[in-house]
Design a protein that fits this description.
mainly alpha; 0% strand; elongated
């Protein structure tokens, strides 16, 4: 290992996943399924969430009062 590789590795910090540096990256089908499930859950929670009118009005007033 040359000096530049050591310095570059130290600058990047610790490696959290132990794969070969030149290995191709690939995603599994379960990654895509998890992403779709997470987006669906967020969409469902957004649709079901109904803030109280007073709270949303107060929040809108607060946002309007902030300097732009």
């Amino acid at each position: 290992m040359d000096l530049f590789a050591v310095v570059d590795a130290a600058r990047r910090g610790p490696r959290w996943f132990a794969d070969a540096g030149d290995a191709p990256r690939s995603r599994r089908a379960t990654d895509l399924i998890g992403l779709i499930a997470a987006i669906g859950a967020l969409a469902l929670l957004t649709a079901l969430e109904s803030p109280q009118p007073g709270f949303s009005r107060a929040l809108a007033d607060l946002l309007r009062s902030l300097p732009s």
